[in-house]
Structures are given as C-alpha cells and as structure tokens.
Design goal:
- InterPro entries: DUF4468.
- This is DUF4468 domain-containing protein.
- Residues 60-142 form the DUF4468 domain.
- The protein folds into two domains: 1-34, no CATH class; 37-195, Alpha-D-Glucose-1,6-Bisphosphate, Chain A, domain 4 (2-Layer Sandwich).
- It is built from four helices and ten strands.
- The protein has helices at 71-85, 89-92, 162-167, 170-195, and strands at 8-14, 17-22, 25-30, 51-52, 57-65, 93-97, 102-113, 116-130, 133-144, 155-156.
- The strands form two sheets. Strands 4, 5, 6, 7, 8, 9 and 10 form a seven-stranded antiparallel beta sheet that branches.
- It is globular.
- The protein starts with 7 loop residues before the first strand and ends in an 11-residue tail after the last helix.
Length: 206
C-alpha cells in the first residue's frame, strides 16, 4: 500500500501488524506507521509545527523569487544542492524532470539521544523550478529505527503516541520532533543560499 494512503483498519494480524482495507483490497500494514491526525502537531511547549490541511502532514513549503535566472539554471543549482547536501544524488533523487522543472528526493536526518544512535527521521523534498523562482515542499517526516539497538520505529512525526511506539516518554518524542523540524529549517535556509547565489564565473569554463 502506498505511503500516505487512506485505509480502514478491519482486523489485527499480530501485535505489530494490522489488517486494513482500501478500495476493496486487504493489506497488512505495520501498526507503527498508521495514525489518524486530527489537526496540526503541537509540541509540549505549545509550538505548532507547520501543517498541510490537505495531506494532514507536517509540511514546510514556500516560493522563493530568484530574479534574472532561468528554469534550467535553477534546476542545475537544485540538483547540485541535493547531491552535495545528501552526499549522493543517485541515492537521494527519486524523480527528476528537467523539462517540467521538478526534482523529488528522499533524505534522512540522524537521531541521537543521550549520545547514542536512535535511528533516523526520513523526509521527502520536492523542488519545482520556473524562470525566476522555485518552490520547495519538505514533508513526510517519519522516524525509523534503522537497526539501532533497543530502538523501535515511531512512525510519522504527526503521531501523538509516538513515544509509546518507540521511546516511552513524551519528552523524548518531543525532542525527536523538535530536532527534526529544526534540521528541516536549516535545510531550507541552505537551499535558499544555494539557489540565490550571485552569478560568477562558470567553473566549467577553463
């Protein structure tokens, strides 16, 4: 079943697996990845994380003007930024369409708790390019154990009960979500710096 799909829980297969029904078909789905968001995600201090009412997911998005640039120039900058930021374009980029001006990638942010590896938070980043501007969408945040010792996957960051699935207390789950969204904000700033860099000599011109 595709990520972010809507389905109805119709039974339990095991403590960690549920039977869900979607469009007449039955699927097995891990209980850690299922949730029913009822509104924006709120941290313990009352901070409300950016929320897309259509997708019901935490979502950072915006349109940035870059006067004097073409769609192709911005596409190259975005592609290079993805490759440098995530170390490998081949590993992160899920879809690329230069003609349409669209890049889609999946990345991860490491989670460290009390000095120990506690898995990672994955996310999806989509960048749309047009002459003189680009749009970014950063969403689909979800915690995965990733083989970390004594750590379970908590699933989407929107889960109000993520601490039950993986960490055992609300403060730890709150820290995971706060750190992940802080990293997201840094990514957005870094992307803007790369996309709005002043034109200089083309390094390929030698």
């Amino acid at each position: 079943m595709a990520a972010n799909s809507n389905a109805t829980v119709v039974g339990h297969y095991s403590p960690r697996w549920l039977v869900v029904k979607r469009q007449g078909f039955l699927y097995l789905a891990p209980s850690a990845m299922l949730f029913s968001p009822d509104g924006p995600t709120r941290l313990l201090d009352g901070t409300v994380l950016p929320f897309d009412s259509d997708t019901k997911r935490i979502s950072y998005q915006g349109v940035v003007e870059v006067p004097g640039t073409t769609k192709d120039q911005l596409y190259v900058r975005a592609y290079e930024w993805l490759a440098k930021t995530y170390r490998s374009a081949n590993a992160v980029i899920q879809m690329q369409d230069k003609e349409a001006g669209r890049l889609v990638g999946k990345g991860v942010m490491k989670v460290t708790l009390r000095g120990f590896n506690a898995g990672y938070v994955q996310h999806t980043i989509t960048i749309y390019l047009k002459d003189g501007r680009y749009k970014y969408i950063l969403t689909d945040f979800a915690h995965e154990a990733g083989g970390a010792k004594d750590v379970y996957s908590a699933g989407p960051l929107e889960r109000p009960d993520g601490e039950v699935m993986a960490f055992g207390d609300k403060k730890t789950w709150d820290k995971v979500r706060r750190d992940a969204t802080a990293d997201a904000e840094l990514l957005i700033k870094d992307l803007q710096a790369a996309m709005t860099v002043k034109a200089g000599k083309d390094p390929s011109d030698f």
